[in-house]
């Protein structure tokens, strides 16, 4: 991994908090990263765009920003575009990739166009959704369906349903978060995730939870979720998953660091779920777990993420 000295980064704003539905997770991620950078001697400080105008970054003579905002306004290209306009370098994926990866529907459409595996799906539009179509949708998608707001993260607004009535209710609930909702065939099997760091796939992690699926509570609130790294894949499967994940991340213009989530069915086939361009960095988060398995400390991980803001690494982004 390319490395720089703490002094080369100059004054660094760690941007976290924000006003999205994922604010609480972002606060924890950002504080974790800020503390790690300070331990490495980086001149870093907290910046919460929900509490201060981003123009203050210029007043503070900020040299670069490490983005730890999750969800809308931080992970969808909006903040990336604002920082680009201000002329302030930032970490990770740019405007286009952030917008694409945040949108689960557009991501799936891109992956499908490239022949990358992803589950069957339908799209529900708030303006034209008909409850009477639920039975047909359930039948088409195998009678077990995941309902997902198109542009939310941390499993917010998601539900797993097994009947037309449940589908109708879950879709209406998901419309509280987005005008477009992804209805995806449920893949029965282990859920895995692959972190990508500076173009390299880190060891995969398999998640196991007693919850109906790997939801917000399983991710951040309780201690019943188990994480397996090594994930139990064969060497051949691990290599295939690493290749699929890096290709999927690149396909949506992901850059620098991120995470790709997949399901594996009973035949061993992998199915892409989504790409995350600013994944969690809390004590329970998956990227630090994968980095640790690869022998990368939290401090080294934070520095590697910060390195993606350097101009010589961002050519073409």
From TrEMBL:
<dbReference type="GO" id="GO:0046872">
    <property type="term" value="F:metal ion binding"/>
</dbReference>
<keyword id="KW-0067">ATP-binding</keyword>
<keyword id="KW-0479">Metal-binding</keyword>
<dbReference type="InterPro" id="IPR000291">
    <property type="entry name" value="D-Ala_lig_Van_CS"/>
</dbReference>
<feature type="active site">
    <location>
        <position position="154"/>
    </location>
</feature>
<dbReference type="GO" id="GO:0008360">
    <property type="term" value="P:regulation of cell shape"/>
</dbReference>
<keyword id="KW-0464">Manganese</keyword>
<feature type="binding site">
    <location>
        <position position="276"/>
    </location>
    <ligand>
        <name>Mg(2+) 2</name>
    </ligand>
</feature>
<dbReference type="GO" id="GO:0005524">
    <property type="term" value="F:ATP binding"/>
</dbReference>
<dbReference type="GO" id="GO:0071555">
    <property type="term" value="P:cell wall organization"/>
</dbReference>
<feature type="active site">
    <location>
        <position position="22"/>
    </location>
</feature>
<keyword id="KW-0133">Cell shape</keyword>
<feature type="binding site">
    <location>
        <position position="274"/>
    </location>
    <ligand>
        <name>Mg(2+) 2</name>
    </ligand>
</feature>
<dbReference type="Pfam" id="PF07478">
    <property type="entry name" value="Dala_Dala_lig_C"/>
</dbReference>
<keyword id="KW-0436">Ligase</keyword>
<dbReference type="InterPro" id="IPR005905">
    <property type="entry name" value="D_ala_D_ala"/>
</dbReference>
<dbReference type="GO" id="GO:0005829">
    <property type="term" value="C:cytosol"/>
</dbReference>
<dbReference type="InterPro" id="IPR016185">
    <property type="entry name" value="PreATP-grasp_dom_sf"/>
</dbReference>
<protein>
    <recommendedName>
        <fullName>D-alanine--D-alanine ligase</fullName>
        <ecNumber>6.3.2.4</ecNumber>
    </recommendedName>
</protein>
<feature type="binding site">
    <location>
        <position position="274"/>
    </location>
    <ligand>
        <name>Mg(2+) 1</name>
    </ligand>
</feature>
<comment type="similarity">
    <text>Belongs to the D-alanine--D-alanine ligase family.</text>
</comment>
<keyword id="KW-0961">Cell wall biogenesis/degradation</keyword>
<comment type="pathway">
    <text>Cell wall biogenesis; peptidoglycan biosynthesis.</text>
</comment>
<dbReference type="InterPro" id="IPR011761">
    <property type="entry name" value="ATP-grasp"/>
</dbReference>
<dbReference type="GO" id="GO:0009252">
    <property type="term" value="P:peptidoglycan biosynthetic process"/>
</dbReference>
<feature type="domain" description="ATP-grasp">
    <location>
        <begin position="108"/>
        <end position="307"/>
    </location>
</feature>
<keyword id="KW-0573">Peptidoglycan synthesis</keyword>
<dbReference type="InterPro" id="IPR011095">
    <property type="entry name" value="Dala_Dala_lig_C"/>
</dbReference>
<keyword id="KW-0547">Nucleotide-binding</keyword>
<feature type="active site">
    <location>
        <position position="285"/>
    </location>
</feature>
<keyword id="KW-0963">Cytoplasm</keyword>
<dbReference type="GO" id="GO:0008716">
    <property type="term" value="F:D-alanine-D-alanine ligase activity"/>
</dbReference>
<comment type="function">
    <text>Cell wall formation.</text>
</comment>
<keyword id="KW-0460">Magnesium</keyword>
<dbReference type="InterPro" id="IPR013815">
    <property type="entry name" value="ATP_grasp_subdomain_1"/>
</dbReference>
<feature type="binding site">
    <location>
        <position position="261"/>
    </location>
    <ligand>
        <name>Mg(2+) 1</name>
    </ligand>
</feature>
């Amino acid at each position: 991994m390319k490395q720089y000295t703490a002094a080369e980064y100059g004054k660094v704003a760690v941007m976290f908090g924000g006003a999205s539905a994922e604010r609480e997770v972002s606060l924890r991620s950002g504080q974790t990263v800020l503390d790690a950078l300070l331990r490495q001697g980086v001149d870093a400080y907290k910046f919460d765009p929900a509490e201060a105008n981003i123009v203050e970054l210029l007043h503070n003579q900020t040299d670069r920003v490490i983005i730890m905002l999750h969800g809308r306004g931080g992970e969808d290209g909006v903040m990336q575009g604002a920082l680009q306009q201000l002329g302030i370098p930032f970490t990770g994926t740019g405007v286009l990739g952030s917008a694409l990866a945040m949108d689960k529907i557009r991501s799936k459409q891109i992956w499908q166009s490239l022949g990358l595996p992803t589950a069957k799906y339908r799209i529900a539009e708030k303006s034209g959704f008909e409850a009477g179509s639920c039975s047909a949708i359930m039948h088409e998608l195998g009678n077990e369906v995941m309902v997902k707001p198109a542009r939310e993260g941390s499993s917010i607004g998601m539900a797993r349903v097994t009947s037309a009535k449940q589908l109708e209710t879950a879709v209406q609930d998901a419309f509280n978060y987005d005008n477009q909702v992804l209805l995806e065939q449920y893949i029965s099997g282990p859920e895995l995730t692959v972190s990508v760091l500076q173009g390299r796939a880190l060891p995969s992690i398999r998640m196991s939870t007693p919850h109906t699926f790997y939801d917000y509570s399983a991710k951040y609130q309780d201690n019943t979720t188990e994480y397996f790294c090594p994930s139990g894949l064969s060497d051949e499967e691990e290599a295939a998953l690493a290749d699929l994940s890096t290709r999927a991340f690149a396909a949506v213009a992901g850059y620098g660091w991120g995470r790709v989530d997949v399901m594996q069915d009973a035949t061993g086939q992998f199915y892409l779920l989504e790409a995350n361009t600013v994944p969690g960095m809390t004590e329970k988060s998956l990227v630090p777990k994968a980095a640790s398995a690869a022998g990368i400390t939290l401090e080294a991980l934070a520095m590697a993420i910060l390195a993606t803001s350097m101009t010589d690494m961002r050519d073409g982004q």
